[in-house]
Amino acid sequence: MSSISELRSQPSPTEGPPPVRLRTWPLGEHPVRGLILLLAIGAVFSVIWRYTSAPSMVLLSVAAMLASLWRFFVPVVYELNLEGVHQRFLGRRRQLLWRSVARYQALSRGILILPDIDNRPIDVLGGLYVPWDDHREEVLSNFVFYVDGRRPRRAD
After folding, report:
1. 121-152 tens-digit pLDDT
2. Which residues contact 81 (CB under 8 A, 6 or more apart)?
3. Which residues lie below 8 Å from residue 1, measured CB to CB, with a gap of 6+?
4. Which of 40, 48, 104, 130 gives the lowest tally of CB atoms within 10 Å of its CB?
5. pLDDT for 75-99, tens place per residue?
């Protein structure tokens, strides 16, 4: 379950929406899914070992799976504030300024932040996904204010 803090009442038009802090850790929130995922990784390990008998192939494939699923195993804190989107995990910090957000997509369980205005499938690899759990409106209000609000309005 994620947590949210630092919310204030309604934002003023010049001040912007309140900052949002979300903490997510899927393994801690869904331990049964974690067990299933670990069993799946073990099954991949077994299948690759059985067909190749090459320790290097097994290590490479398991390492690739763990690298792609790291957000499941590690607690991550996201903060949306006046500067942009901040991601913290394992003592590391990634900052994505609002001006570098070209576009975003609101999905069913979170928001996908994309670095390019073009709609190419490969753009997802350079993007950042922020799960919002029960805090959809708080997260979206930041994107509407800081990303949509800076774009020039078209005259109809």
Report:
1. 777 777 899 998 889 999 999 999 999 886 65
2. 19, 20
3. 29, 133
4. 40
5. 999 999 999 999 999 999 999 999 9
